[in-house]
Amino acid sequence: MSRLNKECLPPGFEYLPACLSFEKSLALYAHLASTLVWQQPDITLFGRTTPIPRLQCFVADKSVSYGYSGTQLENTPWPPVLSAMRTRLMRQFGQDFNALLVNWYRDGQDSMGWHSDDEAELGACPTIFSLSLGATRHFKIRHKQSQEILTLPLPTGSGLLMTGRSQQDYQHALPKQARVTQGRINLTFRTVG
Ligand SMILES: O=C(O)CCC(=O)C(=O)O
Ligand SMILES: [Fe+2]
User: Fold this and answer.
1) In what order do the strands lie in the sheet with 149-154?
2) Where are the domains of the chain?
3) What number does the ligand 1 atom closest to the CA of 186 have?
4) Which atom in ligand 1 lies closest to the alpha carbon of residue 154?
5) CA angle 100, 165, 16 (to 5 degrees)
6) I need a surface site. Which of 5, 24, 129, 158 has the fewest CB within 10 A?
7) Which value does ipTM take for this structure?
8) Is 130 in the pocket of ligand 1 (CB under 6 A)?
9) pLDDT per residue over 47-86, tens digit each?
10) For 8-18, how does the pLDDT look when each residue is reduced to its tens digit (9 = 90+)?
11) How far, in Å, CA of 99 to CA of 129, rounded?
12) pLDDT exceeds 60 at position 19
């Protein structure tokens, strides 16, 4: 496993430090943790059905229909703070974001397994913007062919832009980190076709 230079991420991954200030990012964490309606749906992987090891909320336009690993996500309407953020990001990235998957990792025991965001509804080369709030967690990126793994710590307020072949050529994951006791919320803005 190699340590990652943030200036030298694989093609299609761009790290954006301090998209939100430390104070604003933690205030948004607290606001979302207490106001969103959180769900813990079951997923089916390799024939085994278990609840996801984190909480989740899928914010999306009414017309959007999206799911993964055997679950259909239930749409929540855009709360004002996230709607305003989406408008800013759409201008910044020239992207018609119509959905936002929010994941709450309550502590280091919560996680997300290896995957690519390569569902057909996202298109061949999706643009996904990810914003991290709360505890710093290690985001892992693994090349599908070489299996080389890079580790990118994502502190509160930091952004990660995934474009191009990032989903075709790589998987990513957020492994458990036993020593992390604080929570983290991650927002991924997406365009579902
Ligand atoms: O929590 C993260 O940083 C990753 C989230 C993710 O990969 C996803 O929502 O598809
Ligand atoms: Fe993902």
Assistant:
1) 2-3, 149-154, 137-143, 170-174, 112-115
2) 2-190
3) 1
4) 3
5) 55
6) 5
7) 0.99
8) yes
9) 899 999 999 999 999 999 988 777 788 999 999 999 999 9
10) 899 999 999 99
11) 11
12) yes
